[in-house]
Write a sequence for this structure.
């Protein structure tokens, strides 16, 4: 999945989910945020509203992607980063539980490890924005065939709410 866009990855995930258990994920897919023009990546009705972000320190051409971490760490409302999506989820009005998933791609072994950006995401979410996240869930997907995206790390957090509403 390394060379795919975020939208293409989301579509592939939805296709995999719906193909595994026919009927179990009926109505699952992108859905507009209540009262907004924004769209949530995946809504499992009466269950989850999930935003998905990609983190790729290297481009498909093997060259460093200098601004890749902005997709994860830009901490302002209205932004499409993972942190911006947490803010958007918390103000969404969705009745479903809320989650953020970051799919990161690395060389094997990593040339630019994702861990620093992921820890920074957690620290900014909690210590700067006052967002409460459940503990991180992480899965390593090894042996990918792309020369720059040789392994994937899938990180997920439930977005619980605010500790103290930021000013």
């Amino acid at each position: 999945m390394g060379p795919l866009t975020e939208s293409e990855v989301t579509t592939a995930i939805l296709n995999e989910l719906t193909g595994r258990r026919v009927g179990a994920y009926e109505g699952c897919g992108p859905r507009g945020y209540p009262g907004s023009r924004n769209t949530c990546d995946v809504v499992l009705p009466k269950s989850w509203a999930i935003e998905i972000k990609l983190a790729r320190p290297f481009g498909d051409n093997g060259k460093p992607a200098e601004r890749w971490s902005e997709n994860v760490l830009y901490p302002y409302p209205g932004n499409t980063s993972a942190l911006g999506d947490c803010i958007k989820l918390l103000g969404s009005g969705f009745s479903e539980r809320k989650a953020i998933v970051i799919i990161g791609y690395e060389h094997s072994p990593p040339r630019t490890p994702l861990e620093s950006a992921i820890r920074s995401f957690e620290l900014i979410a909690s210590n700067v924005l006052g967002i409460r996240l459940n503990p991180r869930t992480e899965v390593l997907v090894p042996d990918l065939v792309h020369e720059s995206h040789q392994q994937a790390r899938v990180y997920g957090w439930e977005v619980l709410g605010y500790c103290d509403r930021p000013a």
About this structure: The mean pLDDT is 91. The CA atoms of residues 151 and 162 lie 33 Å apart. Residues 6-20 form the longest helix (15 residues). Residues 6-162 form one domain.
